Structure formats: C-alpha cells, structure tokens
Amino acid sequence: MTTVAVNPVASLRVTRNLAVAAGIDILYLDTTLERKINLNGVNAAMGGSLGTGPFPDVGQKFSGNGTGIGFNLGVLYDVAPSLSLGVSYRSKITAGIKGKGSFDKQVPGLLTDSPGRADLNLPQQVFAGVSYSGFDPLTLEAAVRWEDWSSFRDLTVRFDNGTSSSTRKNWKRAFAYAVGASYRLNPTVSLLAGYLYSDTPVPDDAFEPSIPDADTHLFSTGALFNFGRYRISFAYAFQMLDARTKNNTLGDPFARNGAGAATGTYRSGVHMVSTGLAVKF
C-alpha cells in the first residue's frame, strides 16, 4: 500500500498562553491485496462440485486506489514559560478504494475477474503531551496516543459480479507512549531523539501475514533547522516489532488443522525517513 497524506493546518494564538489549530486530512491510497485460495478446500465445501482433485492454489489479486477526507483539531496551553500542555484529535477516515480483482485461474460463477470496491476505515486518534524546557537548551517531552482501531472490523472487497472476498479483522483500541528530547546547538540547529512503545491493536485470532503487526518499539533521531520564517526537519526512525506466532486459520477459511493458513512465527522491522517544512506568518 502506498499512501500520500496532505494535511493543511492553520493555528491561531487566542491569548498569550493559549493557541488552537484546525486542519483537513486528505488521504490518497494506492493498494494491491494478494492472497492464495485453497481450491481443494473450496471444492470440499461445495460438495466436490468442481470435480476430483487435488487442485493447485488459486492466486487472487485486487488492485485499486481511492481517497478519504478527515479533519484534525489541536489545543496548546502554556502553563508556565517552561511548561506546555497539548491535546489533539484526528477524525476517522473512510477511504473508498475502487479497482479490479483478478485470479490466475478462473472458476466460472465463483472465481472470475471483475471490477470491485473496498472501504478501508482508518481510526480516530487522540494525542496528549507535555513539554518542559526548564533545562535550556534541552527540552524534554512525553506523550500518549489513543487509536480507536475497533472501527477496523473487516476488510471486504465487493465485486461487481456479485461475489465478495472478506477477511475478519476485529481490531481493538490501542495505546502508545513516547518520550523525546531536543537539544539546541545554536539558534539555527537542534538535535532530536525519541523512543515510543505501542501495543498492537491486532488480537491473536485476527493476526495474519498481510499485516504482521505486534507490540512495537520505535527509536528515532533527527535534526531541526530554523531559517527565519522557515523551519525544516529531517528524521530517521527504526521500528522494531516483537516476534509473533500465528496459530489460527485466518487467511484460508477452508483450512483444516491450520494447513495452508501460513501459521508460523513472524519478525518484522521498518525503516522510516521523513522531512518537514513549516512556514510562519
């Protein structure tokens, strides 16, 4: 999945100690979903109507793109010159993805190429954080994030030929906790570092290899450059996910005793690079 997020935001200082902000989230997704279908299991479930086996697995692919729109709000309050508190909210985004489903082997009336559509629900989020700059030039921060992944109940592709393909998700709400530090070398350059821990929203009975999520440790570093009205940031982060074992039949609804359901232990890591530009008016 490739995503592009555009988030124009405007902020206003209401009083000397209080600032508010609001913005629009515009999200574009281009995605390809692939999986194998156990045709022997399908044939057994249909009473052998496809003939005598054994049959090879059938490859299914759905490729499409779509957009979703949401909003975000924020409040920042300076309790003291060196202490600030902030809270922000991001709304749920539903992205409608239109595309085409295809199979590398056709089964008339059951597995046939067709245009289709899927709705992907991304969760609402609440962030809260505190920043303390009393150790100038060192600034310390701590934050917590709540994500309502319970909105991600299933991933269903509905095809124009009347068939559908669905994977149960039933994700849960999740929390993340973070600490960070910024050290100002001079008026232009600041160095950044941080750590985040997040529990996974994916329950054991919904864990499957297309999204091998697990409890996460995120380590990050970066730099911030101030040039008058302009502020430019660069950052690198490594996300280390705890090893996780799949022991359910999800992904192959006709699997027996887990056969063909990609059971096993999964280990994942993610490298991330980001850059940002802010302009003061």
Question: Can I get a quick summary?
Answer:
By secondary structure, this protein is mostly beta strands.
Notes on the structure:
It is built from one helix and 16 strands. With 281 residues, it is mainly β. β12 and β13 form a beta hairpin. The two termini are 35 Å apart. The model has no long low-confidence stretch (mean pLDDT 90).
List the defining traits of the structure above.
single chain; 281 residues; mainly beta; Porin; 16-stranded antiparallel β-sheet; 1 helix
Which homologous superfamily in CATH is the superfamily?
Answer: Outer membrane protein transport protein (OMPP1/FadL/TodX)
User: Mind telling me the CATH class?
Assistant: Mainly Beta
Instruction: Give the beta-strand count.
Output: 16
Mean pLDDT: 90
CATH architecture: Beta Barrel
Roughly how many Å apart are the termini? Answer: 35 Å
Number of helices: 1
Portion in helices: under 10%
The major sheet is characterized as: 16 strands, antiparallel
Look at the helices and sheets and give the structural class.
mainly beta
Low-confidence parts, pLDDT < 50 over ≥5 residues? none
Radius of gyration: 23 Å
Question: Would you list the SSEs in sequence order as H and E?
Answer: EEEHEEEEEEEEEEEEE
- Kindly report the CATH topology: Porin
Strand content: over 45%
Principal-axes geometry comes out as elongated
What number of structural domains do the residues give? 1
